[in-house]
Amino acid sequence: MTTILETRSLNKEFGAVIAAKDLNVKVAKGEVVGVIGSNGAGKTTFINMVTGYLKPTRGEILFNGKSILGHSPRAITRAGMARSFQVAQLFPDMSVIDNLIVALAAAESPRPSFLSPLRSDARIARAEEILAEFGIENYQNSKVTAVPQGARKLVDIAMALIGNPQMLLLDEPTSGVSMDEKTGLMDTVMNAVRQHGVTVLFVEHDMDVVERYVSRVLAFYSGEIIADGKPAAVLADNRVRDLVTGHRPTHKKGNGAS
Amino acid sequence: MRFDKTEISLALVAIACVLFGFVSPGWLIFLLTIALAKALVVQGVVMQMRSGLVSFGQGLFYCIGGYTVGMGGQFFGIHDAIAALALGMAVAIVVAMILGLLLTRYRDIFFAMLSLAFSMILFGILVKSQGLGSTDGFNVHNWTVFGWAPDTGADSQQTVFTMTVLAGLLIAVLIHRYTKAGIGVICEAVRENEVRVEYLGLSPRWLLYGNYVAAASVSALGGGLTALATGHVDPEMAYWTTSGEFIFIALLGGLGHVAAPFIAAIVFSVVRTYSIEFVPNTWQMILGFTLLGVIVFLPKGLWSLVSREKSGERT
Amino acid sequence: MTSLLAVLIDGSIYASWLFLVAAGLTVIYGVMRILNMAHGSFYAIGAYSAASLVGWYFNNGIGPAWISYLLLVGAALVAGLIVGVIVERGLLRLMYGRDEILMVIITYALLLILEDTMKIVWGVSPYFAYQPYTELGRTAFGLLKVSNYDLALVGVSAVLGLGLWAWLERTNQGKVLRAVIHDREIAVAMGVNVRLMFTITFVLGTTLGALAGALTAPAISVVPGIGIEVIVLAFAVVVIGGLGSIGGAAVGALLVGLSRAAAVHYAPEFELFVIYGVMSLVLAFRPEGLFGRTMARKI
Fold first, then answer.
1. Which of B37, B233, C53, C129 is 20 to 30 A off residue B4, Cα-Cα?
2. CATH superfamily of A1-80+165-253
3. Which residues form a coiled coil (chain A) (predicted)?
């Protein structure tokens, strides 16, 4: 198995606060890795560092064997690593389809054209296909601010996938989404991901979701990885039960974290 | 090349304007010429507003355009008006390409302040330049068009008007396409969510840079035409209150349509002409209250009145 | 040697004047996040109030000269207080919560309104109140003769700066203000009356602006448009120092003051250029100004 992403003793300190401590992570091509941990455990910090939004204090990040340390989010995206966001990052004044069309144009070329129209027939057709694939074709012409949270999350993920990434980092794809929507949303996302053959790492609070989709789990606690392995083994680990999942006797219900 | 509805309407209005120029009185032609030339400068402000940046220093390029046209005739023997205008745009592009490297690192008030500072630097240089007439500036005359020299004042007024209308048409069509093209839409995307643009693998800085340079060239054209129309340039063109006026017109028109700055500039010029004549000491106050009114009641500018029936439709 | 001394003296005088002008601007921005374009107008209002009051006082030969200094300060305090309260309660309060850049434009509208208001109140002919300036005489530094009034300005500026700093750093009210600056939401949650703090800050800022104008009035002829000239200088100073920082404004004022004095003495054609040149240079290397802090966006 070839390694697609590797971090070597990645550290991040915000003043006296240690947000990441000696993170050594290896992700193999094709894996679906879940990341669990309570709030403030350093999961989003990890994604932010890997995608170039935050610069690690120390350590090394390799993507396909090459260092991407210090690269911009843009360069890392171009290199084939995309991400989604805890709070969907969309263009609020545009319609759903226009959001996708911008992503399509971005995927085609890093230098957008000066005079030929962005909304070309070809891009509109392609965007409609994507909307159908994600089951959000009903929202095609709605402003993104007017569609439900679940659909916005899907638009966010669809935009990340449009660039045909080799790897996708999902930051809490189901947060803010109602319980009933969660499974449907994750099924849609995972189908799309499998079709594109994308390696996935996703942060998730809901242990049901984690167990259902991932082949491997990383458990974060206060900036460190305290367990790494098959879901069943990690979730049965005593430290994980004490520090990560233990305070939630059943799985987290209700409307999730928002 | 296919033209859409907006482009055809713009062309028709432009033709009507040119024809109207032959029958209307001189003062009105002059007023319209200045208004349209200023509208071009405002187009540059609007282009940047779309990308979320408010330039308090667009007067820089207005002034560069004007001074280049003036100096071209005065010192470098470039008497052809069209060549001089093109030269003004070229100089503005070069300056913008240099300043843009620094400016595109800034957003919000920092961009506003730094653009203001750059324009004030030019002002500071010009008021101390004896050879260019210091604070008085100098006159711009003796220009030709394709070798033809207008011999009366009325002739030259007429010619500048026609040139301004045609330049306005050309720029309006180009901007209309530009706003719908990749760069135009994605510049708006930068305003709406820069982080997302970055995570689509695009460089917001590159986009803003391209947009800044394009906006500078359009504004310089407006400055050059103003110099031809008034026959005079002075450092005041780069003073920050001049840039403030452009922001005012931009907000008055709104970002809704490429025609909005033209309409707003004409409204502005007419109101100003009469206010200065009848209520010289309350003209700025009128501006101030209008600006507040626009911000509170017409946040999308005058154009939102025109397009109200069509609301919901994306153009 | 003489010219170096002249640069230092002129530079310090100009710097203290700049600091007086910029202090109110930076205080308002620091607490309220409003970059106030109308600050120059408060300066002008202060200058007009002081010049008309002091002019009237001397023209009628009412009393001893020392009272005129009290009148200068008094006029500024009253004018700043009145205008500050009217503007904050009547306009800004309705606009809070809007984009920082939109607030700039709103205060620009305010500037336009105030400029003409001043023309209506004071007319367009110049006002003079030179007596407090000439009354103090001059001091000789070698060949240089420097006005004592200008030297006193340096003192006033230093005292004012230290006072502001002490107020922000050493008093309870200052602590509360710093809490508002640091995190408005938490300050509200802790029961701070942010609205009241805003009013206090804004009135303090306008009064400082008016005071700067009043103290300058004896040295200049007060004419329409002085506020418009001053505001861009004040911007340069606070942007160089880092918006919202008192110490930054002081350093920015010194930097601009000394460079301008140097330009005036050695290369007068660069007098104006140098101010904005320094501003651009500082920003090129320190985008947030010398003492500003960067704020990252959370995603």
1. B37
2. P-loop containing nucleotide triphosphate hydrolases (3.40.50.300)
3. none
